[in-house]
Amino acid sequence: MCKPDGEQQDCYDDRPLVKDLLEKHGKAIASVRHQILADDEGKALYEQGDNSERYDDIWILRYVLSHKGNVRSATKAALATMKFREEIKLNELGDIRHRLKHLGIPNGPVLDEIEPLPGYTWMNQYCSTDAASVVQHDRNRGPVVYCNVGGIDQDGIVENMDDEEIKNNQLYSNEALYQILDD
Questions:
Q1: Which pLDDT score, from 0 to 100, does residue 84 have?
Q2: Is the model's pTM score more than 0.90?
Q3: 132: which strand partners?
Q4: 118/125 Cα distance (integer angstroms)
Q5: Which of 1, 5, 66, 163 is the residue whose CA sits 20 to 30 A from 77?
Q6: CA atoms of 126 and 104, how far apart (whole Å)
Q7: Cα–Cα distance between 131 and 136 in angstroms, integer?
Q8: Which of 119, 118, 152 shows the shortest CA–CA distance to 133?
Q9: Alpha-carbon distance 96 to 115, whole Å?
């Protein structure tokens, strides 16, 4: 609800501001980071390349919030994610936001020249016109995925794409979306 005195930043969004969440959960964030650095493999991954910038307070906050402030489980999940990202070399991809494409919608000459995300070409074969579109109407809000589920041939995907192709398509699409959110 909008308040007449302008107390809220956005009348349509009453979620707390990230800066307020960082302040409120600062001790838990520091504890998770301390536990990551106390783990030999966690410390090596944290200090590798630019990972200390990637695994910043906001990144750790996601784990603190999703584990309801439980430092032990937040740390365990964060370490598992760091190890997974290292195992599949996800941090080495760099910026892949521009490789996120619509499904069933012509991308145009500029986007046609950009290498798609893994699995996109296969996935797109099983999508009718306007099957899925990713848009960001407002730079201050996250992207929105419009999906016409009826326009996606689920049987064709399951019958013709292997699990690895499907997994990679979802994994890299999610990574691109989170890169947009982190911007």
A1: 96
A2: no
A3: 103, 147
A4: 13
A5: 163
A6: 8
A7: 17
A8: 152
A9: 10
Between CA 141 and CA 150, with CA 144 as vertex, the angle to 5 degrees is 170
**Whole-number Å distance between alpha carbons of 90 and 3:** 43
Query: Which residues are bridge partners to 83 per DSSP?
Result: none
Q: What's at 93, amino acid-wise?
A: L
The pLDDT tens digits for 50-107 are: 999 999 999 999 999 999 999 999 999 999 999 999 999 999 888 888 888 887 777 6
Q: How confident is the model at residue 2 (pLDDT cuts 50, 70, 90)?
A: very low
The enclosing H or E element of 34 equals: helix 26-38
**Angle CA(163)–CA(164)–CA(169) in degrees, nearest 5?**
100
Buried b (16+ CB within 10 A) or exposed e, 28-46: bbebbbebbeebeebeebb
SS3 of residue 130 by DSSP: coil
